[in-house]
Amino acid sequence: MAEKLLLKYGTKNYHFNLPDYARILRIEDPDAETTTSRFKNRIQMELNRLRPDLSDVAIVLADKTRLCGYPIFLPVLVKTLREFGAAKNNITMYIAYGTHSRQTEIESYEVYGETYNNYRFVHHDCRENNIFTKLGKTNRGTPVYMRKDILNSSFIITFGAISHHYFAGYGGGRKLIFPGLGRLDAIYKNHGLFLDQQNRVLSTSCLPGVLKGNPLAEDLAEYETFRPADLSIHGIIDSRGNVCDLLPGYGKDHFLKACRQHGENCEINSDKLYDLVIASCGGYPKDINFIQSHKALHHASMFVKDKGDLIILAKCSDGIGSKTFLPWFEQGSWEKAFDCLAKNYQGNGGTALSMMSKLRRINISLVTELDDAICKTIGAKKISMDQAKERVERFSDSIAVITHAGLLVKRVSL
User: Fold this and answer.
1) Could you give the CA distance from residue 364 to residue 413 in angstroms, rounded to a whole number?
2) Using CB atoms within 10 A of its CB, is residue 386 exposed (0-12), middle (13-18) or buried (19+)?
3) Which residues pair with 16 in a beta bridge?
4) Could you tell me the pLDDT band of residue 119, with boundaries at 50, 70 and 90?
5) Considering all CA atoms of the chain, what is the largest pairwise distance in Å, rounded to the nearest integer?
6) What is the separation of C-alpha 110 from the centre of its chain, rounded to a whole number of angstroms?
7) Domain 36-265, classified CATH 3.40.50.11440, yes or no
8) What is the pLDDT of residues 352-400, one digit of tens each?
9) What's the confidence (pLDDT) of residue 313?
10) Are the CB atoms for 370 and 320 separated by under 8 Å?
11) How far apart are CA 357 and CA 372, in angstroms?
12) Does the pLDDT of residue 106 top 50, yes or no?
């Protein structure tokens, strides 16, 4: 008997009729959501343990692409800090954009709630070179730059959701300070480790969920040692965007524990490949733009047979999400793009190469608001929602459906 399934696209859900032989791949959502009282108790325990100097508190937050219940839990955090002696004027929030575009005031209020109006927020700009101090460089050559105001802070808190990252292993945690608050040239140097220049391929060790042996992730770990956060709050998020757990703590082991907890919910141990995979990014904000949607596309592609087909539901209401992505498709070939990027890594060149690599192996169709011309440029076929539904209903070979490809990852090991 055919099964009906809802797939998210932007902020809406769409019904799909699935053949009875279709395999549905889902993440395992945690059973419960966390509470403000539980969060407050955990923060109090950490502050009692640390007894920090709260004369100049820096709180580093993710942007609109990585939500973490900020309107609910930020007020609890700042109130608790003030109860422990922090003055309101001595608490500053830093938005860790990395290379992302700055949010509007309306977007920022939506992401952070009333705290945005009541406290000082700094919108990080990775191109503003004079705000940084150089501390050295990593063994892989990445220059270590830190914001001067962050270095002068008496207590640094990072607060964001843990997630898989398609080449850095995991996002959140240490990535909030770098590349989140990084300088542009340092970010590009680190991201350039995605390229295996000796073999002229993308590094086979830069994989979602892989930290050990991943050169880019190991570079991030070394970068962190120059000035780690004093307190890291790692969020565990479910498929609906709810905050299921908030884990305050410190250091590498604490970060790895949070990654394992996230991985237990979102990784699937399966070697099976399918002729057709249809996947939703998971809706907004996972499909806010193509750069974010590509992460889901990458995850889903790992379940597709060679020469198979992938259909991605990615609304991309904010367009591509980068001015440095499309130009790489004008190089004429993957090889030329790789060589150019290897000489001078810039922008979202790694994402462009990753997209090109997948198109060498599989066929990709997009249900999207992106222009037809853009889809053609990046090598994808634009189709309508009705065409996607019809394709699924009539497909006779092996088929899998991924409800939240932005979260679901095939478990891999080196």
Assistant:
1) 26
2) exposed
3) 5
4) very high
5) 65
6) 19
7) yes
8) 999 999 999 999 999 999 999 999 999 999 999 999 999 999 998 999 9
9) 99
10) yes
11) 21
12) yes
0.90 exceeded by pTM: yes
Q: Return the structure tokens found at 305.
A: 């047979």
- Per the CB < 8 A criterion, the answer to whether 200 and 402 are in contact is no
Percent of the chain predicted with pLDDT > 90: 90
Please name the amino acid found at residue 327.
P
Cis, peptide link before residue 285, omega less than 30° from 0: yes
* pLDDT at residue 414 greater than cutoff 80: no
Q: For the chain, what are the domain ranges?
A: 3-26+269-410, 36-265
Taking the C-alpha atoms of residue 120 and residue 291, their distance in angstroms, rounded to an integer, is 29
pLDDT of residue 1: 45
**Chain segment 381-390, per-residue pLDDT in tens:** 999 999 999 9
Dist CA 113 CA 128 (whole Å) = 27
Q: Kind and range of the H or E element at 105?
A: helix 105-112
Give the residue-averaged pLDDT of 45-60.
98
Which H or E run includes 44? helix 36-50
Within this chain, domains 3-26+269-410 and 36-265 share the same CATH topology = no
Within 10 Å of residue 202's Cβ, how many Cβ atoms? Answer: 17
Tokens 């956060």, residue? 229
CATH number of 3-26+269-410: 3.90.226.30
- Give one DSSP letter per residue of 351-412, joined into a string: HHHHHHHHHHHSEEEEESSS-HHHHHHTT-EE--HHHHHHHHHH--S-EEEES-TTT-EE--
